[in-house]
Amino acid sequence: MAAIRKEVVVKHKLGLHARPAAAFVKLARKFEADIILEKNGERVNAKSIMGVMMLAVARGETVYLEAGGKDGAHACEQLSAFLEDGSFA
């Protein structure tokens, strides 16, 4: 099955820093899928807190989620909703 790729604009006021990044990674780790988070061509494992923090995603920035594998579609749906909602810690 081909990987699913989705463009997402991050809505949280702090972007993906510290607690929001930790919550994002915790959610990503619930899926079996291989999940990549990409910003400006830089791709990291979405299940890696260091990788996600390294991207330094700010509010309003566009990132890409790519998920492949058994539950890739569900992972992409849940993680994009997480980023687009903007209400996480």
> How many domains is the backbone divided into?
1
According to DSSP, the number of beta strands is 4
The computed structural class is alpha+beta
By CATH, the superfamily comes out as HPr-like
Instruction: Please state the overall shape, judged from the principal axes of the Cα atoms.
Output: globular
As laid out across the biggest beta sheet, the strand order is 1-4-2-3
Descriptive overview:
With 89 residues, the protein is of the alpha+beta class. The protein has one domain: HPr-like (Histidine-containing Protein, Chain: A). Helices cover 35% and strands 26% of the residues. The protein contains three helices and four strands, in the order βαββαβα. The protein has helices at residues 19-28, 49-55, 72-85, and strands at residues 4-9, 34-39, 42-45, 62-68. The protein has a four-stranded antiparallel β-sheet with strand order 1-4-2-3, with helices on one face. The longest helix is centred in the C-terminal third of the chain and has 14 residues, at 72-85.
SSE order and pairing:
Blueprint: E1 4-9, H1 19-28, E2 34-39, E3 42-45, H2 49-55, E4 62-68, H3 72-85
Provide a concise account of the structure shown:
By secondary structure, the protein is an alpha+beta fold.
List keywords for this structure.
4 strands; 35% helix; 89 residues; 3 helices; four-stranded antiparallel beta sheet; Histidine-containing Protein, Chain: A; alpha+beta
